[in-house]
Structures are given as C-alpha cells and as structure tokens.
C-alpha cells in the first residue's frame, strides 16, 4: 500500500488473468455464506466506503488503476460508542467471519467457452499491519477458490506455512 498522506493509502494489487475478470475489494467485510459454506456475498457497513470493482482484460502483470481503491484510515474512527461503522482497530483485527480486507477475482468466460468452469471466483482474505515508517501493508490470511459450486481452501503446495511466508516481504 502506498501512502498519499498520513491517513490515506492506495491499494497496489498485481495479478495475472487468463480471461476477462472483475476484481472487487471489500474493506471491513463480513463474509455471508450459504448452508454449504459457500461465500454468497460480503457485507460492508453502509456508512463506510463502498466496495470497489474494476473489470480487466486478460493479461499478465496487471494492477489496479492508481487511486481506484484508496483507504482513508481516518474514516475508521466511528463505531466506538455503539454507533455504526468500523473502528480503526477493525482494519487490523480478524473476527469470526469478519475480515479487514477481502479481494475477489471473478472470471468472465467468453461466449462459446467450452471448458468445465462456469463460475470461478478466487477470494484472498487479509488484514493490515503498520510498520515503523507509518506505511500500511497487507497481511495475507488465506485464500479460497469457488469453482462452480465447490469451495476450496488454497494452501501452499510446497509445504511452506503462512508463518514462514510472512518472514519475506509481503508487498
């Protein structure tokens, strides 16, 4: 995340896409699932900034347009006295079904697509952390893949657990 001033940070996201896709970023979101444990949607408080979405063409090394997703930490001071909204600590704390940040990437298959996939969404869950220089960075928590009507937890295939991965620079 790159700082604009002392309270505003622009999300810097890089990814590859084989097909058109829609990237949606949810801040302070509650995951709402069906009886099969499949994420149906993410609820964000109406008094807080709305989720942002952007459609991408296929391609490698893509990134969100600059300033598409700006997180203003000063907006997260609400909610302390029982009022609606998220508190600043909600950006750093994971609770049951509540995540500081969720990034979903949904595949848009072309007309005439003959593959097996019909609905494909990758969810990346995370929180934020501050370093000594007041920069805000992303802390990876987990990933899920919704493939047709099956939800799968994605794990590192080489056996490196999340704690070992956190030693490296996560930006």
List descriptors:
seven-stranded antiparallel β-sheet, 2% helix, mainly beta, 171 residues, three-stranded antiparallel β-sheet, 1 helix
Total separate domains: 1
Reported for the largest beta sheet, the result is: 7 strands, antiparallel
Estimate what percentage of residues fall within beta strands.
over 45%
What is the number of helical segments per DSSP (H or I, 4+ residues)? 1
Task: Give the rounded overall mean pLDDT.
Answer: 82
Number of strands: 12
Walk me through this protein's architecture.
The chain is globular, with a radius of gyration of 17 Å. A hairpin with a 2-residue loop joins β11 (136-147) and β12 (150-154). Helices cover 2% and strands 47% of the residues. It has one domain (2-165). The N and C termini lie close together (8 Å). Strands 4, 5, 6, 9, 10, 11 and 12 form a seven-stranded antiparallel sheet that branches. A three-stranded antiparallel sheet has the order 1-2-8, with no helix packed on it. Strands 3-7 form a two-stranded antiparallel ribbon. The longest helix is centred in the last third of the chain and has 4 residues, at 162-165. The chain has 171 residues and is mainly β. It has one helix spanning 162-165, and strands spanning 2-3, 8-10, 14-17, 20-33, 39-44, 52-56, 59-63, 70-72, 98-108, 120-130, 136-147, 150-154.
């Amino acid at each position: 995340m790159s700082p604009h001033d002392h309270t505003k940070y622009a999300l810097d996201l890089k990814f590859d896409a084989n097909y058109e896709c829609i990237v949606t970023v949810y801040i302070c979101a509650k995951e709402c699932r069906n009886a099969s444990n499949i994420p149906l949607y993410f609820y964000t408080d109406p008094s807080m900034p709305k989720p942002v979405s952007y459609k991408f063409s296929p391609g490698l090394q893509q990134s969100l347009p600059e300033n598409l997703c700006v997180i203003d930490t000063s907006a997260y001071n609400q909610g302390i006295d029982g009022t609606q909204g998220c508190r600043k600590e909600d950006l750093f704390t994971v609770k049951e079904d509540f995540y500081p940040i969720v990034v979903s990437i949904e595949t848009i298959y072309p007309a005439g697509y003959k593959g097996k996939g019909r609905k494909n969404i990758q969810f990346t869950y995370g929180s934020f952390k501050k370093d000594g220089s007041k920069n805000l960075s992303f802390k990876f928590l987990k990933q899920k893949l919704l493939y047709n009507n099956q939800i799968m937890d994605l794990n590192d295939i080489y056996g490196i657990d999340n704690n070992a991965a956190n030693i490296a620079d996560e930006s």
